[in-house]
Design goal:
By secondary structure, the protein is of the alpha/beta class. It has a single domain, classed as Rossmann fold (3-Layer(aba) Sandwich), CATH 3.40.50.970. Helix content is 46%, strand content 11%. It contains twelve helices and eight strands. The strands form two sheets. Strands 2-1-3-4-8-7 form a six-stranded parallel beta sheet, with helices on both faces. A two-stranded antiparallel sheet has the order 5-6. Helix 2 packs parallel to helix 3, helix 2 (45-52) packs parallel to helix 9 (210-225) and helix 5 packs parallel to helix 6 (151-163). The longest helix has 27 residues, at 5-31.
């Protein structure tokens, strides 16, 4: 299906919002305004946006410790995200979750998860709910190559097949589980082949190519929404930075880092739509300017926002039914 001009603008806006947001997170972390750790999504923008592009607020996603990009791709507001990441009042989770625990139920965002392999079981539960309610909604679990080895992930994949739930497993294979190369830690040469062994269809796509990810996700959505059970996508991409902001990356050589930057999903999108005369470069430049202005304003406002009051210290600790 051919994407319209408005579709292309929406995709680029989402991708560039992730890029500008994460670059600002990197700066704010260096300035000391973000407590704890920060794991940015730079270099993987096409994967998250391609997967989430055709999802609705009624579809669910579960994320990872590197979850800012997934939140933005699913529609979470960056103003509330900055407040949350800086631990400020008014954050999406009241300033209590921080960088690795952003959740927004109104947007179908089950939450980022600091537990490696934590989101697949949660997403299978969400998918089972949709099946029992008879909807055509789906659940998506983002995981990395490191999480592909976790028992929680493997058990969730097996359960999804057995229960035939509308579930899509997305493995963003950026080549590293924290600091360990996947060619050492992952026995299977292809995560898609491993998924197929559970009894579900699977594809491997270029995770730096929005159009390839989007097309593969449409196949996955058609399969899952039609009641045929789970599907797996392996998106192969490169992270620009290390495991966390400030990681010196002694385990990666300069050639590898340069190669990762050269395979930039933002530049590839611009080249693709420019060569096909689908959008003018001036239109993309306008999007970039507007996005950067919004990101800068959101970050500045979050820096000035108050911390949560002591009165909220014991709220949101336990679920009350």
């Amino acid at each position: 299906m051919q994407l319209s001009r408005d579709d292309l603008k929406r995709a680029y806006t989402a991708m560039f919002t992730i890029r500008a947001f994460e670059e600002r997170v990197e700066k704010e972390f260096a300035d000391g305004t973000i407590p704890g750790f920060a794991h940015v999504y730079l270099g993987q923008e096409a994967s998250g946006v391609g997967v989430c592009f055709d999802l609705t607020d009624d579809d669910w996603i579960g994320s990872t410790h590197r979850g800012h990009g997934h939140c933005i791709a699913k529609g979470c507001e960056i103003e509330g995200m900055f407040l949350e990441i800086m631990g400020r009042e008014g954050g999406i989770c009241g300033g209590k979750g921080g960088s690795m625990h952003i959740a927004d139920m109104d947007k179908g965002m089950l939450g980022a998860n600091a537990i490696v392999g934590g989101s697949p079981p949660l997403a299978v539960g969400a998918a089972l709910t949709q099946k029992l309610r008879g909807t055509d909604r789906v659940a998506v679990a983002f995981s990395g190559d490191g999480a592909s080895n976790q028992g929680t992930t493997l058990e969730a994949m097996n359960m999804a097949v057995i229960l035939k739930v509308p579930m899509i497993f997305v493995f963003e294979n950026n080549g590293y589980g924290e600091f360990t190369a996947s060619d050492y830690s992952v026995g299977a040469a292809s995560l898609a082949d491993r998924a197929a062994a559970f009894g579900m269809p699977a594809q491997t796509v270029d995770g730096a190519d929005f159009f390839a990810v989007h097309a593969a996700m449409r196949d996955a959505l058609e399969h899952a929404r039609s009641g045929r059970g789970p599907y797996t996508l392996e998106t192969r991409c490169s992270r620009f930075l290390g495991h966390f902001v400030g990681d010196p990356q002694k385990y990666r050589g300069p050639e590898e880092l340069a190669e990762a930057r050269a395979n930039d999903p933002i530049s590839r999108f611009r080249d693709r739509v420019g060569e096909a005369a689908l959008l003018d470069m001036a239109e993309l430049d306008e999007i970039e300017s507007a996005v950067r202005a919004r990101v800068d304003a959101a970050a500045a406002a979050a820096r000035e926002a108050p911390m949560p009051s002591l009165a909220t210290l014991e709220t949101d600790v336990y679920v009350k039914y």
